[in-house]
Specification:
22 helices, Alpha-Beta Plaits, elongated, 11 strands, alpha+beta, 4-stranded antiparallel sheet
């Protein structure tokens, strides 16, 4: 591996103009494709293998033209204090809005008059107009949204309170100015780390090129592959972070090689051959974690993982090719003035131990205390994770200042908490001898279930072989009681199926939420087993050890549980919520934990590979285990610290997003990197290695012979001369790839 990458780095350095031209051309082509593509819509959401999804599919088959996946809106009216919406003046105003909505856009499928559809509260204070659209919310035109908002605004002039709920007002998420602040912080950290504007600018430039290509390709293929509107944002978040970090490690190793007196081309080759090997395996762990999301069998989540993994793969390729090419353009200006003067001086002053060296020696003296402090600290932060509640967001999780949240509250006050989470029961009567009797029996069974507020009369399709029944629970959609209602209907449906042959299925947003959360819970352990297992094998090949990969996996689990604890404390309990712009607390988004686990695992292995590879390199080259730990920290601690701060800044930049999932993922990844880099990798890892000693690098001989020797520590490059003499030749082919 080191030999191949060494040659690749030198080739890219020599042919830098061609390499740069190829990447710029790819960026231009991807940008042209993105500019030519139609605007991305929201990804179709499906949960294969669940009852809610089977019911949804049945609706599309038996009730064609019903726009089951179309956008919806509820225009909610509340009469002034002491008045009613049934008063003549208010009723006339509402009916006028009904007519205005019907003619306001050709995307409207249907508009339900509240006085005909029985959509008036018992006390007469509240009513709502249901609007259905033929297309999804992301496909609605600005004109359609404007007509909806104009209708509500004109009704407010009559003195009534008018708010709009539903997904019709949903728009593309905004990341906010904090994303720019995150990149700015990354730039400042790079300047401080390298002491050179050229060296600091290289990782930023190459990372932006990689992210530009990745996001442009996602945008160009969004409609073709049904990628959805948030996929590119998540890919940008991850691609930008790893792109900067991977380039940072290559540039840092290049500067170290120059400081040892090697010629520029040789330094570039050795930087790619050593640090580049770590980049390859670190990138592989991230890709494994993201692609592994496919085991959950949620198409939307799988596509997000594949898209982000492709962006990471591009970041790896850029680090191995474009970065050494750009180093060729930069020359020795990649070193700061002070470093250049030190390199040119004949009598170099003795270098004092840096902070990484002093910290490693401190840990080696007190490994037990450092280990206990790290484990107990993260364990304390992880305590809130035991109270984790998962769910999908609805209008009730919106900030109180939004019209969607105010409409949600008006409906809850006027019709009851469960009105915002109706259940749709679909009855397939093809297997029944008397379909109408079976449907009537279903309605009677549901009316007798506890916590059911109301059951609407059944609606049959034209063929008469399917019917729908709307069930209004007494409690809010995310409550335990509503979940019990769903399970009770399904249990009753199983008995009716045995008696009559009619199949009873429960769907709707609330049922989909329950099924989705259950699917996430069921998939978490298999996903962890697959990802951790594959990464364990990969790290065993890299480090040629059994205990080092095991320590890496256990450290990851500790940091990810602590990160989940922090997420619960902020987004569910509301601790420091205002500091992070969380206006409304509630259940943690169902897909967030498993997505966070995948991404954080890959990133955690990044730091493990970058830091421990340097220790492994020192150990292979003859140092004792303790000396190897100090050497690894002397060369890697500052760079790993800078990489972690950069990644935290990039992720934290997405906390300003208007999309609740992006905000939550940005926070969770930022805090997970904080815990993993500074507590697990910087404290727990050296403490464990100090306690293990020689045993840390033990591998059974039979297994050692079976595993391929990828030479990630660059042993194959060790015999090559340094300095000018090394410029013309390459390393000997002494290792297996």
């Amino acid at each position: 591996m080191a030999t191949f990458l060494y040659k690749l780095g030198r080739l890219a350095f020599r042919r830098r103009r061609y390499v740069a031209l190829v990447w710029v051309a790819l960026l231009a082509l991807a940008g042209f494709g993105a500019a030519s593509a139609s605007t991305a819509t929201s990804s179709s959401f499906s949960i294969p293998g669940t009852e809610a999804q089977r019911a949804f599919d049945l609706l599309e088959q038996r009730f064609p033209g019903g726009s089951a996946d179309g956008a919806t809106a509820r225009v909610v009216f509340k009469a002034p204090e002491g008045g009613k919406v049934t008063d003549a003046g208010n009723k006339a105003e509402v009916e006028e809005i009904v007519g205005e909505l019907k003619s306001g856009s050709d995307q409207v499928a249907s508009v339900a008059d509240p006085y005909v559809a029985n959509a008036v509260s018992k006390d007469g204070s509240t009513a709502y107009i249901s609007v259905s659209y033929e297309v999804s919310s992301m496909e609605l035109t600005d004109g359609t949204r404007d007509s909806l908002e104009h209708a509500a605004e004109s009704a407010r002039s009559s003195g009534m309170t008018v708010e709009i709920g539903g997904d019709a007002l949903q728009v593309m998420p905004e990341t906010g100015a904090t994303e720019i602040i995150g990149v700015s912080v990354a730039a400042v950290v790079l300047v401080i780390t390298f002491g050179s504007l050229i060296a600091a600018g290289l990782p930023l430039l190459t990372a932006l090129i990689g992210v530009g290509i990745g996001v442009s390709l996602i945008t160009a293929l969004a409609n073709v592959l049904d990628l959805g509107s948030t996929t590119s944002t998540l890919a940008m978040m991850i691609g930008l972070a790893v792109g900067i970090d991977y380039a940072l490690f290559i540039v840092s190793r290049y500067r170290a090689e120059l400081a040892e007196g090697r010629e520029r081309e040789e330094a570039a080759g050795r930087a790619v051959g050593t640090a580049g090997s770590a980049v390859v395996f670190a990138g592989l762990t991230v890709v494994i974690a993201l692609v592994g999301l496919a085991v959950v069998n949620i198409p939307m989540l799988s596509k997000m993982g594949f898209a982000a993994a492709a962006t990471v793969a591009i970041a790896v390729l850029i680090a191995l090719t474009l970065v050494p090419a750009m180093l060729g353009f930069a020359g020795k200006r990649v070193l700061g003035r002070r470093a250049r003067r030190a390199a040119e001086a004949e009598d170099r002053p003795e270098v004092k131990p840096n902070m990484g060296t002093r910290w490693a020696r401190f840990v080696l003296r007190r490994p037990v205390w450092v280990l206990l402090a790290g484990v107990i600290g993260l364990g304390t932060v992880a305590v809130p994770a035991a109270s984790l509640e998962m769910g999908l967001p609805d209008d009730g999780s919106q900030p109180r200042s939004t019209t969607q949240r105010q409409a949600y509250d008006l409906l809850s006050d006027g019709f009851g908490p469960g009105f915002n989470g109706p259940l749709l029961v679909v009855v397939d009567t093809r297997g029944s001898s008397d379909g109408r009797t079976a449907v009537s029996q279903v309605s009677q069974e549901i009316e007798g279930i506890a916590h059911v507020e109301a059951v609407t009369p059944a609606t049959f399709n034209k063929a008469g072989d399917a019917a729908t029944i709307t069930v209004i629970p007494k409690d809010r959609p995310s409550s335990t009681e509503t979940e019990q209602v769903v399970h009770a209907i399904r249990d009753a449906g199983a008995g009716i199926n045995d008696e009559t042959g009619a199949e009873v299925l429960v769907t709707g947003a609330t049922a989909m939420n329950i099924d989705f959360s259950q699917k996430m819970n069921d998939a978490l352990l298999p996903y962890l087993a697959l990802v951790v297992g594959l990464a364990f094998l990969l790290l065993m090949v890299v480090f040629r050890s059994l205990l080092v990969p095991l320590k890496a996996a256990l450290g990851f689990l500790l940091s990810v549980v602590a990160a989940l604890g922090a997420v619960v404390a902020v987004f569910q309990w509301g601790w420091l919520a205002s500091l992070f712009g969380v206006e409304q607390t509630g259940p943690i988004m169902s897909m967030m934990p498993i997505f966070m686990v995948g991404v954080v695992f890959g990133l955690a292995m990044d730091y493990e590979v970058f830091l421990v590879t340097r220790m492994r390199e020192a150990y292979v080259h003859g140092e004792t285990p303790g000396q190897a730990v100090v050497t690894g920290f002397r060369h890697g601690a500052r760079v790993v610290t800078a990489a972690a701060v950069i990644m935290m800044a990039v992720f934290a930049g997405f906390i300003g997003s208007s999309e609740s999932m992006i905000k939550m993922v940005g926070f969770s990844l930022a805090v997970a990197v904080l815990f993993d880099a500074f507590v697990v990798r910087m404290a727990i890892v050296p403490a464990v290695l100090a306690l293990l000693g020689e045993r840390a690098w033990w591998l059974p001989r039979r297994l050692d012979r079976l595993l391929p020797n990828v030479d990630v520590e660059g042993e194959g490059l060790r015999g090559e001369p340094a300095g000018p003499a090394a410029g013309g030749g390459g390393p000997r082919e002494t290792v297996r790839v």
